[in-house]
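Recall from the previous lesson that a structure prediction takes nothing but the amino acid sequence as input. Here we apply that procedure to Putative membrane protein insertion efficiency factor from Phyllobacterium phragmitis. The sequence below is the only information supplied.
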Amino acid sequence: MCRNDAHSHSHNGAHAAAAIPRKRYSRNFDGPWRKTPDRLFGTALVRFYQLTLSGFIGNSCRHLPTCSEYAYEAIARHGLWSGGWMGLFRVMRCGPGGTHGLDPVPETLDQDLAWYLPWRYWRISRKSG
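The prediction returns the following tokens.
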């Protein structure tokens, strides 16, 4: 009798553990974002880089998240134009003598960031470096 009870407890425990959804690890942004054609194209380019060239270049990013993760999230959140400029400027700051440390993608952008003034995106992450 005890053996059946022990078996039923472990069996129920296995079902309880299986019912808890496990968080899938992704090195890229996995929050909600609009899947527009420009964002899908931009994030696909970043992902292509991560799967091919990133291994040859090495893991030498001085920021967290890495520059490619930052570009992926910036494009997913803010679109190809804004996110692309943010990602480009982030890579430019990553070299020797540049910024380092925790540098998250902002959830919202300032109102003075206009599409025809792309150099203003430079200051976004410079604040936290």
